[in-house]
Specification:
- By secondary structure, this protein is an alpha+beta fold.
- The protein has helices spanning 2-8, 22-33, 66-76, 80-95, 103-119; strands at 15-20, 41-45, 60-65.
- The chain has a three-stranded mixed β-sheet.
- α4 (80-95) crosses α5.
- The longest helix is centred in the C-terminal third of the chain and has 17 residues, at 103-119.
């Protein structure tokens, strides 16, 4: 999913992906966004001022809570793999500049996610 989103947006990446549990994503959410709760996905864009200097242009890292993905998949009525694909697409779109803080932006981002998933034959509900 990550590679597909990057290819469709003509971006080479790379993007790091970490699959973690609720405890770890909550720790990261608290540390970097000052929000002390578990969330489903976080996106950390790479900034040129960081100490690590990658040899190729690095977009950043997407961190997905597998625990949240399981719960959300069950609630929505689709397989956990489909939820993981949705969250991966969501995280990469954030790295590419999509935002979901305003309602109109969130709707645009959700449409794009669903389109990308549909192109790969991945069905999500809800």
């Amino acid at each position: 999913m990550v590679r597909y989103v990057l290819d469709r947006h003509r971006r080479p990446g790379p993007v790091g992906v970490a699959l973690v549990g609720d405890r770890e994503i909550r720790r990261l959410h608290r540390r970097y966004l000052k929000d002390d709760r578990a969330t489903d996905v976080l996106a950390f864009p790479w900034h040129p001022g960081t100490r690590v200097r990658p040899s190729v242009p690095w977009l950043g890292e997407v961190v997905i809570s597998v625990d949240r993905a399981r719960v959300q998949a069950r609630r929505a009525g689709h397989p956990p793999a489909a939820e993981l694909a949705l969250l991966a697409a969501h995280g990469v779109l954030h790295l590419l500049g999509y935002d979901d803080r305003r309602r109109s932006d969130a709707q645009r981002m959700a449409r794009r996610q669903r389109q990308l998933l549909r192109e790969l034959g991945i069905e999500v509900r809800g």
